[in-house]
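QA checklist item 7 of 12: single-chain prediction sanity check.
[x] sequence parsed
[x] length recorded as 178
[x] structure emitted
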Amino acid sequence: MIRLKRESVVRRGAWSVYRWTQWALDWTLSRVARGGWARLGLGVVVLSLLAGCAAQPERTVTDLYGPLPGNIENGRAVLEDYGCGSCHTIPGVPGANSLVGPPLNGWAERSFIAGKLPNEPEHLEQWVRFPQAIEPGTAMPNMDVTEEDAVDMVAYLFSLRRDLTWHDRTRNFLGIAR
């Protein structure tokens, strides 16, 4: 019996897709073991899954939210000025290579902020400015970030994307090691 890694799927908020996929695999494989018409069903399931893997056009942050206010280059400088690199690894920010907090690479592709807020620019701006108000007791301190600086930080963080192919993203999503 094939088992998908539940932890890698739950992290991404796709539990219902995981359950359906697991059920479809179990059902189909049990029918194939008996032989007969189920092989046709397996072919249909496999083709359906492969159709979802067809190359899709990359969606950018601008496609989802329109042009973000803020200055990307100023955001990089502001992240350095506030000392964000003393806790986070941030690509493009000199000296930002710490692992106290989570690394911020590929930020635009993340689903959640602090495990609870949808990763949207306005939520990230509020998180950067008031992390203790959003999640009391979090390790991220209030840094007294101004609204203008937060908008620039958000613009920079949403410019960070990982350079992964659809195949690599699918492998990561399913928790399949290379």
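[x] summary fact logged: The two ends are 21 Å apart (CA to CA).
[ ] second reviewer sign-off
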